[in-house]
Write a structure and sequence with these properties.
313 residues; Rossmann fold; 2 domains; four-stranded parallel beta sheet; globular
Length: 313
């Protein structure tokens, strides 16, 4: 699957609407633009009343592919800070939008250009040569780190530091908000882990290579993906091999984000008896990050006991 690149001519036309960068926010309050819902939700927790957040990608939209709507450039033009996932997660669309926004505060290297992945320990960093034959691979490592809430806390603390540098008068409040968020997550994390503790080591399958942080955190074992390589649609031969592997390993569940096509997963689930678990890939607009993680954990937990029960003789 080739990443979608936005026509430069279209961006230039839209950027003429934006004009020059606006003055800094009044009263030290920050206008933050986040690329995806999880980052937007975490940023809101950190800002509290000290700013507002706009999210570029819709919650139902695969963040690898975002359309260049004119309002996105206007949002970026007005931003005091831009928070992105990094690791080439948004590489197919964000850089050209940032250039088109003509906002010096959020250009790479500026204090308002914040890359969340710098706060986490990245998994699945490729070793050796990386090329297109490997699929839509991320040279810097797996970018789907927000499905582990411990990384959510790390990102919140990093945002508090960055936001405080941009708005020193609110810096202490941002730090307090980040620590309150960390306390909230720590309290709920115990329940999430207890919910799936009986299923440690349970084999699961995903659609895209996007569950590495989730499965590592919860102790599940990802034994295959519906995509043979990241971003490559499954062939009939690959599906047949995966069906055999699911049967051999008694895979309990196929877990995938709702923004991926579900027809192949439904076919595989029908052939193998594995349960298809559709999850939200990101926190919805106006939602809370902890509630998103809770939804994911509950959806998986609801499928695993039923799947196990059906496989008993």
């Amino acid at each position: 699957m080739q990443r979608r690149h936005i026509a430069v001519a279209s961006i230039l036309a839209i950027s003429s609407i934006a004009g020059g960068s606006r003055p800094a926010s009044a009263a030290g309050k920050l206008h933050v633009v986040a690329t995806v819902g999880d980052l937007g939700a975490i940023a809101r927790e950190v800002l509290g009343g000290g700013g507002d957040v706009t999210v570029l990608a819709r919650p139902t939209q695969d963040p690898h592919f975002v359309d260049a709507r004119p309002n996105l450039i206007l949002d970026l033009n007005r931003a005091d800070a831009l928070v992105s996932m990094g690791l080439d997660y948004e590489v197919g669309w964000l850089p050209v939008l940032v250039r088109g926004a003509r906002n010096a505060r959020i250009q790479p290297g500026a204090p308002g250009y914040i890359v969340a992945s710098s706060a986490v320990s990245v998994l699945e960093v490729p070793r050796g040569r990386v090329d297109r034959s490997m699929g839509d691979i991320h040279p810097g490592g797996n970018p789907h780190f927000t499905l582990d809430p411990r990384n959510g806390v790390r990102v919140a603390r990093a945002l508090a530091q960055s936001f405080g540098a941009l708005s020193p008068e609110n810096g202490a409040a941002y730090q307090r908000n980040a620590e309150a968020f960390a306390t909230q997550i720590a309290a709920r994390e115990k329940g999430w882990e207890a919910t799936l503790a009986p299923h440690k080591g349970t084999p699961v399958v995903s659609y895209h290579k996007s569950l590495a942080y989730l499965t590592a955190w919860l102790g599940l074992e990802e034994v295959g993906t519906i995509e043979p390589k990241p971003g490559i649609p499954p062939s009939a031969a690959h599906v047949a091999e995966l069906v055999s592997a699911i049967r051999a390993r008694h895979v309990a569940a196929i877990i995938q984000e709702r923004w991926y096509p579900s027809s192949v997963a439904e076919q595989i689930a029908s052939q193998t008896g594995a349960h298809l678990v559709l999850i939200s890939g990101m926190t919805p607009d106006g939602g809370r990050y902890a509630d998103h993680i809770d939804e994911v954990v509950r959806a998986i937990a609801a499928a695993l006991p039923a799947a196990h029960a059906e496989k008993r003789p």
